[in-house]
C-alpha cells in the first residue's frame, strides 16, 4: 500500500486516487458507496493494467458487534462470488486483507447501465417497447434462476445494476454488493442466520415491503424488483410516480400501452404479499411463454442466454433444460395420449415442494411412471393427495388450475 496510510484509520475515509493497494491495484476513481463498503475502479498491474472493480469493506456503523457481523457477511460474499460461474455475472477474481481492511476484486463491466440507456431513450422521446422488455426479461430470468437455485438473493435489482456491454447482446447483472446475500429456506419460515435475516439492503421504490421493513428477502423479492425495473423501462417514470403512496398499489398501466397478458404477469410479480407472487424465475419464464402474441423464436431464453464469445454457449440453464426434457421423456408412459411438457412438470414439482419438501421430485417421478395419467388435471389431483393438510391441498390445486 502507499506510504501515506492515514486513510486506513476509522472511520474509513475514501482511498485517494493514485493509491496502490498491496503493490498491485492502482486506484483510479470511486464508483459508488453504500452502508457497508465502497467500490473503486482500479488497474491491476499484474494483468497488464487491466481495469477491475475493487470493493472495500468500510461500514458506516460504529458498534463493534455490527462491524463484526458485517465483516462476516463480507467474507461470506467472497465465497459466494467465487462459486458463481455465469457469463451474465461479473467474474470474481480475488479477496484479500490489507491494513485491516477487506477487499474483493471483480471484473469491470464496460458498458452502460439500463438507467443510462433509459435516459438516452427519454431524450429522444422514447421508452422501451413491450417486445424489448419481453426479450430483456427472458434474458435476465435465467440469471435469477441460476443464483436462486444456489440459495443466493441479489437484493438490489434496479436499472443501475443491470448493464449492457458495448460488445455483447445480453444484459449483465452487477453489484452483488457487500453483505447482500442471504440463503432462504422453504415456506418463508426462516433464513440461514439471524445476521442474514436482518440485513437491510435495497433501493427505495425498487425493493418490496418485506425487504425494506423487515430486512427479509425471498427469491420473489428479487422478482418484484425486476418487475419494478421493467415498468420503469416501459413507462419512463420513476417508482415514486407509479406507486400510489396512499393505497400502496402500483398504478403504472396508464403510462404505457402493452398487452394485458404481460401486464398481468408484471402485476402478479408486483403483489404486496410475497406469497401471492410468482415464487421462482422458472415460473415467470413459463408464464411469459404462455403469452400468445410472442413469437416462439423470441421465447427461448436459453438460446438468448448465451454471450457471443467462443466456447461460452453452454451454461447451466441450457443443461438444465436438456436434462429436464430428457427426464420428462423418460417419465411419459402414454405418448399417444398425454405427454406432459417438461417445464410444466418442473413447475408442478416446485409447487409441490413448497408443501412437502424435496420428496416432491420422487413423487412426481413415481406418479408419471406407475400411473396412467391422461391430462394435467389428473396429474394435479394425483399430486395434491400427497399433501397432508386438506386446506393446503386445495390451495395447491387453485394455484395450478
Automatic annotation (TrEMBL):
Residue ranges of every copy of the Protein kinase domain listed in the record: 25-291
EC number(s) stated in the UniProt entry for this protein: 2.7.11.1
Entry keywords, A to Z: ATP-binding, Kinase, Nucleotide-binding, Serine/threonine-protein kinase, Transferase
TM region positions: none
Keyword NAD: no
Principal EC category: transferase
InterPro entries to which the protein is assigned, alphabetical: DUF8082, Kinase-like_dom_sf, Prot_kinase_dom
GO molecular function annotation: ATP binding; protein serine/threonine kinase activity
Pfam families named among the record's database cross-references: DUF8082, Pkinase
Gene3D superfamilies hit by this protein: Phosphorylase Kinase, domain 1, Transferase(Phosphotransferase) domain 1
Reaction equations catalysed: L-seryl-[protein] + ATP = O-phospho-L-seryl-[protein] + ADP + H(+); L-threonyl-[protein] + ATP = O-phospho-L-threonyl-[protein] + ADP + H(+)
Name of the featured protein: non-specific serine/threonine protein kinase
Organism: Stanieria cyanosphaera (strain ATCC 29371 / PCC 7437)
